Amino acid sequence: MSKPDQRLQDEGSRLQVVAAGATAGLISRFVVAPLDVVKIRLQLQSHSLSDPLSQVDLRGSPIYKGTVGTFKHIIANEGITALWKGNVPAELLYVAYASIQFTTYRSTTLLLQRVFGEGRDKGLPQSAESFISGAAAGATATAATYPLDLLRTRFAAQGNDRVYASLRRAISDIRRDEGVRGFFRGLSPALAQIVPFMGMFFAVYEGARLPLGEMELPWGTGDATAGVMASVIAKTGVFPLDLVRKRIQVQGPTRSRYVHKNIPEYRGTVSTLRAVLKREGLRGLYRGLTVSLIKAAPASAVTMWTYERTLNFLIGRREKANEGEQAMV
C-alpha cells in the first residue's frame, strides 16, 4: 500500500512506473479475458430474445441472453478456450496501454505542478489535477494502442468460422483490404469515451484511496475498493460510446462474417448512436453493461492492487540496492 502522505503520480521513477503499469495490465487482462469476450458478443448483438421482430434476419447468428446465458452458449458451441479469443492482441494492448497510461499520468501531473506550482496555497486543486492528468493519460494510451484494440475486438467476435487465421494474417488482411485507416475504425468514439472516463476514474480514485486506505475494510484494501468505485462510476457514464466503438470496429468487408452475421452497417459516431436508438431503443445502447460492470470490479482492483505493490516492490528493491552501495563506500 502507498504511504499515507503519497499520491499515485508522485511515486516511483519513470522506469519503475512503466514496469509496474505493464505488470498490472498483463495480469489484469488474463483474469478478465472471459468477461471481455462475453461483453463484446453482447455489444455486437443487434437482435433480442424478447423481440421476435428483431430476429427476422438472423442469418445464422446466435441469440445471447444475459451474462450467464452467453457464457453457457459460448462454451457449449465453441469450447471453453473461446472465452480467451483475442487474448494475444489483448495482452499486448493491456501491457502497452497500462504502461503508457501510468507514465503519461505521472508526466502530465509533474508538468502541471511545474506550470501551476505545488501545494495547497498554489497550484491546481487535487481533483482538477487528477482529472486533467487522467484525461491526458487515457487519450494518449488509447490513440497509441488503438490498432491492438480493434484486433482484439475482431478476434473476440469470431465464431467457429474464423475470419482471420492468425494475428499476422489479420494485420496483413486489414492493411490490404482497408488500408491504414482500417486499423483506426471507431477511434472517434473511443477518444470521446476514454477522456471523460479516465478523468473521472483518476479523480474518484485519488479522492477515495487515501481516506479508504486509513480504514480497516473486511473485504480488502482501500486501494482496491477505490479502484472499483472509480471504475463503476466512470464506466456507466460512458458505456453507450463504448458500444458504438465496438460496432464500428467490425465494419468493413468482413462485417457479415463474424459470429453475429447480421451486424448493421454503421458509419460515424453520431449516426451510429441514432441508428441504435431507432432500431433497439435506449436499452440497446447498454447491451453488455452488466458484464462490463462485473468486469470493472476485478479488472480495476487487480490493476491498481498489482500496480501499487509492484511499484512499491521496485522502489524498495532500489532503495536496498542504494543502501548496499553506500555501505560499501
Describe the structure.
With 329 residues, this protein is an all-alpha fold. 68% of the residues lie in helices and 0% in strands. The chain has nine helices and no strands. The chain has helices at residues 14-43, 66-78, 87-116, 126-156, 167-178, 187-213, 222-249, 269-280, 289-328. Helix 1 crosses helix 2 and helix 1 packs antiparallel against helix 9 (289-328). The radius of gyration is 21 Å and the shape is globular. The relative contact order is 0.16. The model has no long low-confidence stretch (mean pLDDT 85).
Question: What structural keywords apply?
Answer:
329 residues, mainly alpha
- Name the poorly predicted regions: none
End-to-end CA span: 32 Å
Number of strands: 0
Q: What's the SSE pattern?
A: HHHHHHHHH
Count helical runs: 9
How would you state the average pLDDT, rounded? 85
Structural class of the helices, strands and pairings? mainly alpha
**For the CA atoms, what is the radius of gyration?**
21 Å
What gross morphology would you assign? globular
The amount of beta strand, in percent, is: under 5%
Please outline the major beta sheet: none
Q: Level of helix content?
A: 55-70%
Short note summarizing the structure:
The protein is 68% helix and 0% strand. The chain has helices at residues 14-43, 66-78, 87-116, 126-156, 167-178, 187-213, 222-249, 269-280, 289-328.
